Amino acid sequence: MLSEPRRLVVVPRPKLRLPRSRPPSGLPWILGVVLCFAVTWALLIPPWQSPDEIQHFAYAQTLVEDHALPGLAGRSATASSQAAADGAVGATRGAFAPAPAPPSWIPADAAAYDAAAPHMLRTDGGGPNPAQPNPPLFYAYSDIGYLLSGSASAFSQLDTMRLFSALLVVVNALGGWLLAGEALGRRRPAQLTAAAVCGLLPMETFIGASVNPDSLMVTLWTLALWMGTRVINRRAPVRDVIALCALTAAAILTKGTSYALVPPTVLAVAIGWWRRPRVERRQALLALLPAGLVLVVPVIGWLSVAHANGQAGVNSFVGGIHATSFNVRQFLSYVWQYYLPRLPWMYPFRVTGGLGVYDTWIREGIGDFGWLVVPLPKWVYMASAAVVGGLAVGAVAVVARIRNRLRLALVAFYGLAVISLFGGLHLYEYRSVIGGNGALLQGRYALPVVGVLATIIGLFVVRTPPRLRAAALGLVVVCLLGLQAISLSALIGAYYL
Amino acid sequence: MRRAWAPYAVLVLVLAVALTVFGLRQAPIRAYALGVPNQAPIVSANRSGPPVCEGPIDLGQRAGAVRIWAVSPRRTSRLRVIVRRASPGGLPVGPILASGTTAVTALPDPYTAQLNHPIAANVPVSICVASLATPIKLFGAQPVRPAVIIHVGRRSVGAEFSLVLLSAARPSLFGALGTVAERASLFHWSWMGPWAVWLLALSLIGAVVAGGIAVAQALTADDRDELP
């Protein structure tokens, strides 16, 4: 007997569903905004009209054309192709005098350079260069743009390199978003605020879109602050500690200033490790120690290479004929007078016309473009000083009321990052001044901790009452857009009108 | 979503009004810049001696004022600027095309002399400077354009003084954007033209809209997260 044919039951095959990973609300849009401004800056800043861009371009060119670090004996700092381009556009001669000597507006000058460029040497530079103590990481990154430009024209190379720098501004904005998310919880208004501040502060867009190691350094610091926050929050997972050490190492390999990132990195790892249950600590320590190699080995490697090349590997001074020795009391007096009015018993020790905190950190930190020759209107600086002062007072008030140990740990981490950076910079400037080399701090040197500023502003936005939050967030973003508009107008007025 | 947009839209409107007012302000722009930085005093203009002349200058557009960088070391003085047609060698020849005066103080600064007639475009001219009182030092530097020569009388000087000619017209910032686009598009990729600068300007307008979307999305997400 034949059995009844079995009925085939077709079971619908379940559709393979991958988890949809949608970008967080608002993030792609704000990154798009930052990208638009960064690219605009990259193309509107006249060639080499950003601090030390002439030297940084020459360094990057030497790395790719000569496969060597700059400082080659018997060579000039810049190759013939760059020197000719510089002469054609008038970059060096106009660097400090854009009013009488703006970049050339004569099409014939540009055409003459373009015609001559293919015949110009790019391999005869690489001589002693003020940027040569810098480690090579940023220049190696920038060289991707140099190589991709596929052109003999130094202007094409510079443009493409700047576009690569502009991408770093976008990554910095992303870093701000991530940092605020980790520090304040995934509150989108706070994250959007932080991303906007990190990506739209005019000085950051200006320096970030230039060929300048600060562009990469600032981004790496923001990412390191985010990763340090993760390490503290999540009790030092090995993967995050490795990432934090790698970011710190990369920052050091970008610019010597980033040695200041080591103390907060160590603190973050120590706090994260300490927050683990007591029984885990011993085992965790054994797992975390090798992660330190990620930080130590590349730095020692760079210092060895620099030493073999007869270079210091970090910026150093040669004392002038009026050099004096280090004096702790004098140093403290200098720092005091940088931030506060001089007390009657103090000897005058001022390196700027007014208070350094205003002249350098506020003025130049908000925006002073070109070779610090294109300032913003004075009222912008005054308003910015009032805002920064208000934020500082507000931040102190908030911190004073924190009782949660984890939050206090985060405050200690950010505080140490700020103190370490500013302390190192002041030490550096003080040594320069007593060595007879003069003042050297510039506002852009404060940008590595822009993530902390951005997080503070983000905190205030989410602490506003819900009915006012839309206005607070809108105000921050519109103020940044307004600052961008004023800054770009200043740039256009100085160089093109 | 609409509520989240509103404050941002209002603030953008305020910003747009402020920028429009700023952008409609009219001011002369640089019609010509020799490109010589004001590094140091390089030549002195005296009352008794021959005028200091620099040329030939080829203007791309009409100019209505001359700006130089100068100082009157002893006390405030007056400077006369005379524009004459130039020979190919830079010597001032022919009739006076325009002239103007300005005070010069003991402060090394840029000083602008308004001309009584605009200088026509595409006419090679020589800019002559003479003091009407105490000697005036003109700032400049090494020559940038070999064709342009300073003459004191018939004697040439191996330097150039900083010189800018301002346009006769007073365009608004918006009105000058075409000039900006032309100037800013030089010395870039060979394929880049003024259109690229206009494109950047458009992208910035788009960025303002994108900023609004970002704000609205972030606020909406925040409201959603705060729901019990």
Describe this structure in words.
The complex is a heterodimer of chains A (497) and B (228). In chain A, 64% of the residues lie in helices and 1% in strands. Chain A is an all-alpha fold and 497 residues long. In chain A, strands 1-2 form a two-stranded antiparallel sheet. In chain A, a hairpin with a 4-residue loop joins β1 (368-369) and β2. In chain A, α1 (27-44) packs parallel to α8 (188-200) and α2 crosses α6 (137-148). Chain B is built from three helices and 13 strands, in the order αβββββββββββββαα. In chain B, strands 1, 2, 4, 7, 9, 12 and 13 form a seven-stranded antiparallel β-sheet that branches. In chain B, strands 6-5-8-3-10-11 form a six-stranded antiparallel β-sheet, with no helix packed on it. Chain B is elongated and about 80 Å long. Classes of the chains: A mainly alpha (497), B alpha+beta (228). Chains A and B meet through α1, α3, α5, α7 and α8 of A and α1, α2 and α3 of B.
Topology:
The complex is a heterodimer of chains A (497) and B (228).
Chain A: H1 27-44, H2 53-65, H3 80-89, H4 91-94, H5 107-116, H6 137-148, H7 154-184, H8 188-200, H9 202-208, H10 213-233, H11 238-252, H12 262-274, H13 278-308, H14 328-339, H15 356-366, E1 368-369, E2 374-375, H16 378-400, H17 405-434, H18 450-463, H19 466-495
Helix pairs in contact in A: 1-7, 1-8, 2-6, 3-5, 6-7, 7-8, 7-10, 7-18, 8-18, 8-19, 10-11, 10-12, 10-17, 11-13, 12-17, 15-16
Chain B: H1 2-23, E1 30-33, E2 40-45, E3 52-57, E4 63-71, E5 77-86, E6 92-104, E7 109-119, E8 125-131, E9 136-141, E10 149-152, E11 155-157, E12 160-161, E13 163-167, H2 177-184, H3 194-226
